[in-house]
Design brief:
12 helices, binds NADPH dihydro-nicotinamide-adenine-dinucleotide phosphate, ProC C-terminal domain-like fold, single chain, alpha/beta, about 15% strand, binds (2S)-3,4-dihydro-2H-pyrrole-2-carboxylic acid
Length: about 270
């Protein structure tokens, strides 16, 4: 059975560990995690996984090692773990804006490197994951990566040049939707619904709409049209949203996210 290591014990690691354990894909005794401080490891210890303050220990103990530290910490981490990376270690980076090339350059020539983008919904096994692989990743390694991520969400393989856009649409997207949900919930409260009822209705409507798109394969515009009865109430709401530039605002938000990815990539070169 595969052993999985995590370098960094923050939000992404916690989400992945929760998702992997609930999927049964890995048992706690096969998970190894290291971080900078004991304090950050506390939140992982509750899962019964193995923890340590030595990042090379994590690499030595794991077949798959997920690098889950902030992008600007990468040069330091890679320098530290490079001597421990053997030809059988699979190193998967989940950082925004850190390229496979910049990682391969800092690890031994034989290093098998992949890069993935995911979102925090992996903790409930409803994540959206996209990954690309580096020069030394063989077909069998790729299958392993695919199985690993598929246990926690919808997993697609893609070209690395598209991963920055995926950050904008998957990695960061939960934050946009939470903001929209909060606003919808506020609107309900403004019109007399309790906070709880308001948030639950808005969330279920968002979930249902998203599932309709995924399960029917139909264009969102077509599904939107079905909701807008002629001369009805929804088209007035849509008109109001269009006047406020909601579409352009969403596209601008994704642009801003992608621009920041490029900046981080430049800082990591
Ligand atoms: N949050 C998200 O939704 C997503 C994040 N990502 C990417 O995942 C990565 C991690 O993000 P996130 O989990 O949110 O960040 P967090 O800040 O929550 O976690 C970062 C972790 O790295 C640890 N760390 C810092 N320095 C070192 C070190 N030298 N050795 C080992 N561990 C160290 C921190 O420890 P300490 O707290 O003790 O400093 C902390 O546990 C980022 O690169 C981000 O781009 C990708 C997709 C989604
Ligand atoms: O905000 C960030 O930088 C990380 C990457 C994607 C989601 N959170």
């Amino acid at each position: 059975m595969t052993t999985v290591g995590f370098i960094g014990a923050g939000k992404v690691t916690q989400a992945l560990v929760k998702g992997l354990l609930s999927s049964g894909a890995v048992t706690p005794s096969r998970i190894y995690a290291s971080s900078k401080t004991e304090m950050s490891l506390q939140k992982l210890k509750v899962f019964g996984v193995n923890t340590c303050l030595d990042n090379t220990w994590t690499v030595k103990n794991s077949n798959i090692t997920v690098l889950a530290v902030k992008p600007l910490v990468y040069p330091k981490i890679l320098h530290e773990i490079a001597p421990a990376v053997g030809p059988n270690n699979l190193i998967i980076s989940v950082a925004a804006g850190v390229t496979i090339k910049s990682i391969e350059q800092r690890l031994p020539h034989h290093a098998k490197v992949a890069r993935a983008m995911l979102n925090t919904a992996v903790q409930i096994r409803d994540g959206a994951i996209c990954y690309s692989t580096g020069r030394n990743v063989a077909d069998a390694d790729q299958e392993l990566i695919h199985r690993f991520f598929s246990s926690v969400g919808l997993t697609l393989e893609g070209e690395e040049k598209h991963l920055d856009a995926v950050v904008g649409l998957s990695g960061s997207a939960p934050a946009y939707f939470y903001l929209i949900l909060e606003a919808l919930s506020d609107a309900g409260v403004r019109h007399g619904l309790s906070r709880d009822v308001s948030t639950r209705h808005a969330s279920q409507a968002m979930l249902g709409a998203a599932r309709m798109v995924l399960e029917s394969g139909r264009h969102p515009g077509e599904l939107k049209d079905e909701v807008c009865s002629p001369g009805g109430v929804t088209i007035d709401a849509i008109y109001s949203m269009e006047k406020a530039g909601v579409r352009a605002a969403m596209m601008d938000a994704v642009d801003a996210c992608i621009r920041r990815n490029y900046e981080l990539a430049r800082l990591n070169e």
